[in-house]
Design goal:
heterodimer, A: 72 residues, 0% strand, B: 207 residues, mainly alpha, 7 helices, 58% helix
Amino acid sequence: MDQLQFAIAILQAVPGIVAAGMDVVQFVQAQMAALTAMQAAGRDPSADEWAALRAQVDNATDQLAQVSRPLA
Amino acid sequence: MDLISLIQAIQDVPYIGPLAVYLPPLVMLGAVVSTVLPAPAADAGGWYRALYAVVQWCALNKLRAANAEQPVPKPAGAPKLGDRPTPLTGVLALAVGLVLLGACTAPTTARQGIYAAGSGYAAALKVAIAYASLPRCGQPASPPVCSDQRIVSQVSDAAQLARPVIDAALDTAASTSASDSALSQASTAAGNALAAFRAVVAQIEGK
């Protein structure tokens, strides 16, 4: 791999990494907002909020299992 | 003049002010890319030299301090390009790490604590997914931005270890008959499981 190919490969990877980072940032911000709203209202998470959180954990666990396999 | 007033004053400068907001991200991106962009070889093409110069300008490396240390030449046998993961993936971990640090909104009830721990676990899983989705290092066509299979396996194992504790805490929180002490114990256990998982995920930051 020469230097130009190396540079191009890095620059091509940047948008994907930034997008993945932004996805996580948005998720954390949404959860923080939900938690802050709960505290302001003096209440605990609703059944819908628990269900949404479980769905997030389930989906993320499945995805991690898929992408963690050693590649051939 | 405080920092906010200073920023507002800069933004009020005609023509230049509105563009100033793009400057810090541009410098940050240039600094990150410049850490992995090798200097042009003697026979490098003009395009690469131009690209390298632009990145160095963006990273504010072009006008180096006169007293800066000269770089130490790499010894013979040093790793070649693509032989190891680049620090570029650290961008993801760094961004997430900063947010997670800020995500420490102190819960006021045990159920809120369990909700915060579950959210933190899901966020850490997403970081792990992003890293594991990269091509693996050490493949024949060694990509410069890659993930280490050893770390991917460790993170996956740590996620599986933490999952039952998080699930049990979520079950306890969903139960209307759970006692205060049971909720408190579940919240503590979930927080500890999350901390252990995050410690393993934090390895990504250095890769």
